[in-house]
Amino acid sequence: MDDVYVHLMEKDPRVESKPLIGAILKHSRISATTKASGLSLINTEYRSLQASEKHNGRIAMERYVDGFVIPLPKDKIDDYKSIAEKAGALWKEHGALAYWECIGEDLDGKNMVSFKKAADAGDNDTVVFAWIVFESREHRDKVNSAVMADPRINEMCAQGAMPVDCERMVYGGFSKLVEM
After folding, report:
1. What is the pLDDT of residues 46-73, one digit of tens each?
2. What are the φ/ψ torsions at residue 159 (nearest 5 degrees)?
3. N or C: which end of the chain has fewer CB within 10 A?
4. What angle do CA 122, 125, 129 make, to 5 degrees?
């Protein structure tokens, strides 16, 4: 088998406990560089990998994603960003693998349901498209339970503190269908 390179961009203390990753690391030469941002880049070269989940030289790992679509008043973007940054740090602290919050820019698709319509956004609203990545649904449940038990989330969600109406938020949990 040709040499294969695995790039894991985020520091994840659970990686060594993963059976598949553990098997790879056991038979690999590893060099690691820690960046000032706290992320680790692990560049692993290995030969003769016997793994059932491999795609284009990358290890296919189970992932679970919570997705959100939220109407947001345009004049509240800065307030929302401040809360989203705190929330993202909280989710990451409790184990989320990635946290994204994106603000709508090109929302009026032709011949399809627009994000503005799907989010029931008004003329003075934009749309937030957000997602949080977890190892699995079980990991998501564990992380979300820890976040909801953290007193800092209650401070962020105190009545009148949120710049959005959370009852208008679209939410769902999604398992991976395709990864490329």
Report:
1. 222 333 344 445 555 789 999 999 999 9
2. -55, 125
3. C
4. 115
Stretch 23-46: mean pLDDT: 31
**Residues 9, 39 contacting (CB under 8 angstroms):** yes
Tokens 């401070």 belong to 155
The phi and psi torsions of 89 (rounded to 5 degrees) equal -65, -40
The answer to whether 165 touches 77, Cβ cutoff 8 Å, is: no
What is the number of residues in the chain?
A: 180
Note the Cα 59 to chain centre separation in Å.
18
Q: Say what the pLDDT of residue 95 is.
A: 97
Which whole number is the average pLDDT over 138-145? 97
Beta-carbon contacts of residue 156 (< 8 Å; ≥ 6 apart): 83, 86, 87, 90, 162
Average pLDDT of span 33-51: 29
pLDDT of 175 strictly over 60:
yes
29 beta partners: 45
Place of tokens 């994106």: 102
Name, in order, each residue with C-beta under 8 angstroms of 106's C-beta and a sequence gap of 6 or more. Answer: none
Q: Hey, how many other C-beta atoms are within 10 angstroms of the C-beta on 104?
A: 21
Q: Which two tokens stand for residue 30?
A: 């590893």
